[in-house]
């Protein structure tokens, strides 16, 4: 796009939109959602004044950055159902056989759901689309070194899942064992259920005094989880469906206070993502989950 939006070859305009759709599709796993994101991206573009658009030296880079930001916001919403090749949401289209998608195993698209939003974004932008480190950093909102670490963790997690795929029933059993270990404050049992290099993330969003850096190692993660979930009156820890697979939901005074996603390879947890940010838990409470009866 130039100052005059009409003075651009049609092929360039179509290629630009296709790139944005591909980025959004790989970040969210749904072609329908990708269309919605790209539409919103262009609405923001045309929401700028003419002079403001003219000052943007690289319109396509700006559009990709906005698309990535919108996708990150959507990935952070709790309760997202399974997406991607392993579990396309009802009403979404099959994975299109275009050049980009043909290069990546369909199983990978489904496995991306196991990653944190930042890991998924960094991995997709870096490994799938080959964007420069600075561009990835600008979209993810982390320094380049942090983004490189996110990509490394994503690769390790995906590699572990491919080498040791976990059937849903096995995933459910491991999660319920983790729940039992937390309920009984059994450090030895919990540690045995965690991979030696397990990583835990605690998303407080700056609104809860949560750990603001990842915790690594089975002993350290076990200690952090047991401390966080130490039993007290009016608290319940339940096994519930989270992102299409069994996760843990913590209630305090009948209100959802935390949602925990567990990434499992084989019989061990390799990643823990704990959402504590009250803003991200609103939909859990708004939809009535807070009043649901305790479950196993």
Automatic annotation (TrEMBL):
Source superkingdom: Bacteria
A Gene Ontology BP annotation from the UniProt entry: DNA-templated transcription initiation
Record's signal peptide: none
InterPro entries with a match to the protein in the record: ECF_Sigma-70_Domain, NTF2-like_dom_sf, RNA_pol_sigma70_r4_t2, RNA_pol_sigma_r2, RNA_pol_sigma_r3/r4-like, WH-like_DNA-bd_sf
Pfam families: Sigma70_r4_2
Domain RNA polymerase sigma factor 70 region 4 type residue range list: 107-158
A molecular-function term among this protein's GO annotations: DNA binding
Keyword annotations from UniProtKB, A to Z: Sigma factor, Transcription, Transcription regulation
Cited SUPFAM superfamilies: NTF2-like (SSF54427), Sigma2 domain of RNA polymerase sigma factors (SSF88946), Sigma3 and sigma4 domains of RNA polymerase sigma factors (SSF88659)
Xref: PANTHER family: ECF RNA POLYMERASE SIGMA FACTOR SIGI-RELATED, SIGMA 19 FACTOR
Family: Belongs to the sigma-70 factor family. ECF subfamily.
Listed name of the protein: RNA polymerase sigma-70 factor, ECF subfamily
């Amino acid at each position: 796009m130039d100052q005059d939006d009409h003075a651009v070859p049609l092929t360039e305009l179509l290629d630009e939109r296709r790139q944005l759709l591909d980025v959004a599709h790989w970040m969210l796993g749904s072609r329908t959602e990708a269309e919605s994101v790209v539409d919103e991206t262009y609405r923001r573009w045309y929401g700028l004044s003419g002079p403001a658009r003219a000052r943007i030296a690289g319109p396509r880079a700006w559009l990709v950055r906005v698309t990535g930001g919108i996708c990150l916001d959507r990935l952070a919403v709790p309760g997202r159902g399974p997406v991607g090749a392993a579990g396309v949401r009802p009403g979404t289209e099959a994975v299109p056989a275009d050049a980009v998608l043909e290069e990546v195993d369909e199983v990978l698209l489904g496995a991306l759901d196991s990653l944190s939003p930042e890991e998924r974004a960094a991995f997709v932008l870096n490994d799938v689309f080959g964007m420069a480190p600075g561009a990835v950093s600008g979209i993810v909102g982390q320094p380049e070194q942090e983004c490189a670490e996110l990509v490394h963790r994503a690769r390790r997690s995906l590699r572990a899942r491919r080498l040791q795929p976990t059937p849903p029933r096995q995933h459910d059993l491991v999660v319920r064992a983790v729940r039992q270990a937390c309920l009984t404050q059994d450090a030895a049992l919990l540690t045995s259920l965690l991979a030696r290099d397990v990583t835990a993330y605690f998303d407080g969003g700056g609104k809860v005094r949560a750990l603001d850096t990842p915790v690594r190692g089975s002993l350290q993660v076990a200690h952090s989880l047991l401390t966080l979930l130490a039993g007290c009156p009016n608290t319940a820890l339940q096994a519930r469906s989270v992102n299409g697979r069994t996760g843990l939901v913590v209630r305090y005074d009948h209100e959802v206070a935390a949602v925990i996603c567990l990434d499992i390879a084989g019989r061990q947890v390799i990643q823990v993502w704990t959402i504590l940010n009250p803003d991200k838990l609103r939909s859990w409470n708004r939809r009535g989950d807070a009043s649901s009866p305790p479950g196993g």
